[in-house]
Structures are given as C-alpha cells and as structure tokens.
Sequence to fold (181 residues):
Amino acid sequence: MTDQQSADLIEFLRKQRQARTFTDQPVSEDQIDAIIEVARWTGSAKNIQPWTLVIVTDPARKQGLAEAGQYTGFLANAPLVIVPVMEGEVPGLHGYDEGRLSERIFLAAEALGLGAGVAWFGAESAQQTARELLDVPAGKSVFSAIGIGHPSPATTKQERRPNPRKPVSELVRRETFGAGR
Ligand SMILES: Cc1cc2nc3c(=O)[nH]c(=O)nc-3n(C[C@H](O)[C@H](O)[C@H](O)COP(=O)(O)O)c2cc1C
Fold:
C-alpha cells in the first residue's frame, strides 16, 4: 500500500458517521451480499460468532421496528435494516462482539457509497417488540438494528456538522493513566 493509499484509508475510517436519512433508492442484492461477507468475517470471543443477521426490507416490519424504541424512528425510512440477533439473554461478553460486528457493517456500507446508522432498542419492552416482529425464539436477544441506504442530502449535511469529539489531549495518556500525553 502506498503512503497515499494509507492516508486515504485512514481518512475514510475517520470520517465514518451515523447516517439517519436516506433516499428511496433500494440497496441492491449485490450490495447486501458484500456487506454480509464483511460482517461474516468479524472476529468474536473464542470465535463463537454469537449472532444471526436478520435482513429486513418489508415497510411494515421496518415501521414496527422504528416505533419500538425511543430513538429508533429513523429505521422507518432506511431501505435496508440489518438486525443482529445475539445469542443469550444478557449482553455480557457478546456485547463487545455485537459492537465489532456493527462497526464492520457500517464500514462495508460506507465503502459501497452507502450510509449506515445504529438504533438502540433500550428498554426491555422495546427489545421484546423487536423480537416479536422478527419472530426471534427464546434464548436470543435483539438490542440494536442498523439502518442502511443511499444517504440523502440531509445526511451529507449532517456529516459535515462538527459534532465534536474529545481532543487527543483528553483522550490519550502515555504509559500510565496519571501521566499526560
Ligand atoms: C451503542 C450506540 C447506540 C446508539 N443508539 C442510537 C439510537 O438509538 N438512535 C440514533 O439515532 N443514534 C444512535 N447512536 C448513534 C450516536 O448517537 C452517534 O454515533 C454519535 O452521536 C456520534 O454521531 P456522529 O456519528 O454523527 O458523529 C448510537 C450509537 C451507539 C454507539
């Protein structure tokens, strides 16, 4: 990889942001396959791969998921929703795995020129609604869903919004927690 390719890739990774508004254009089956192939190779604790991905494009089902949680509304207008169904009934160790899986899905979507955003169901009642909508059996959990689509101009504008992060001086310590950078 050339220095320029590395710099471009680092910039690509740095710029990934939450997308919440999408055009009506569907996500193609080839794009879905590419995203799933990247997700499939996500590492997990002991390589357990404690997940199943439910692909949702049915408008009524997406609407149901959108209405389930307090901050899940944007799922209704995402052409594609991918729901990680996790093994077990408490997040525990698998919570880390779910985060890794989701981030890979975001990055694969972005690499295809799409936008992606996570929605968190939160309350147990919202999780239960999502489980029922997706016919998820006992012993498995639904904590989040990922909306994916072609980003609308509103999303592009939102991506340009600063939405600041901690400065490096606050984020990083060298060698010990007590030391400065
Ligand atoms: C675990 C987790 C849960 C989130 N839940 C929601 C959510 O329910 N609804 C939503 O619109 N955004 C949700 N977000 C997105 C965050 O609000 C977003 O990543 C953060 O504000 C940074 O925004 P930016 O990507 O535009 O910089 C969630 C993010 C994470 C990591």
About this structure: The domain at 19-160 is CATH 3.40.109.10 (NADH Oxidase). The chain is about 40% helix and 15% strand.
